[in-house]
Amino acid sequence: MNIIEVADNLYLVDLPQNLEGFRKFISCWVVKNENLAMLIDVGPRSTIPKLLEALNFLKIKKVEFVLLTHIHLDHAGGVAEILNQFTDAALVVHKAGRKHLVNPEKLWKASLETLGSIAETYGKPSGIEENRIYEGKIEFAGKKVEILESPGHAPHHQSYLHNDFLFVGEAFGVHLPLKNDYYLRPATPPKFEYEVAVNSIEELIALGSKKLCFGHFGFKRDSIEIGEKALKQLKLWVSTVYDILCRKEIKNEEEIVKIAKKDLIEKDSKFSNYKLLDDDIKKREDFFINNTIRGIKQYVSEKYCL
Question: What CATH number does the domain located at 3-223 have?
């Protein structure tokens, strides 16, 4: 069990999957107030026992709120089990995602098509009762929680601000802390909307410097620094794929991914830290890097290179 105390009453629970390299990747944020908690993203169904063990270790007796940044299985797949365990917990989720939590069949089918065996390891989500979804004001430990719509990674993506801590899901991409630096890449699976993602990042930067809590993975003290890097990175990735697809007129997707990855490791200082990752984490990242470039390729193709 890996629980990291990030600040007073704020904990990061690592939820490793039974897949090679799927560690320091999926997590749940736990905000604690004595024996009460607010959870931000609960992870897939497969690791709910690990999360419950962590909550028991933290002496959590009651969960007041479960906040979902979005409904993808690695963030929300286990929400029904958490709501069954904590019967008074109120669920907060973007309005566009609600029907897919009540009836997750389309979500499950889409997850299988996109993720294949990874989705099967995460586990098929169970449906929730619609009356568990909460729409009122959110306050925890005497502090207001602000909901910030932040589409881009998904149309049903939202971030949360609580007591100077900004929970951004995947709006700023995927992060992994390293010994003296960090790894960062965009999270832009198909269908990717570049302008929407840029606008979300800019709006989160405009909040001012907050303490940043990633969905994948970890914590940084200055959200402006990371937001500006994420914005610059996203623009670089789009322009790189544009050059390959439109100017070099390479159409084969496998070749585009190969060339783009090589070019970006040379040009993108934070993504170049891919070379410092452990081999198993590289293998995990290879799959998601492919998905990220596929999303950008689809956007560029439809926007510029039809």
Answer: 3.60.15.10
pTM of the model: 0.97
**Which DSSP category does 207 fall into?**
T
**DSSP per-residue string spanning 160-180:** EEETTEEEEETTT-EEEE-SS
Neighbours of 112 (CB within 10 A): 15
212, 226 contact by CB (below 8 A): yes
Q: Which helix (H) or strand (E) holds 6?
A: strand 3-7
CA 274/CA 265 separation, integer angstroms = 8
**pLDDT, tens only, 250-280:** 889 999 999 999 999 999 999 999 999 999 9
What are the structural domain ranges in the chain? 3-223, 232-303
What's the pLDDT tens digit per position in 103-152? 999 999 999 999 999 999 999 999 999 999 999 999 999 999 999 999 99
The full 3-state SS of 117-162, as one line of letters, equals HHHHHHCCCCCCCHHHECCCCEEECCEEEEEEECCCCCCCCEEEEE
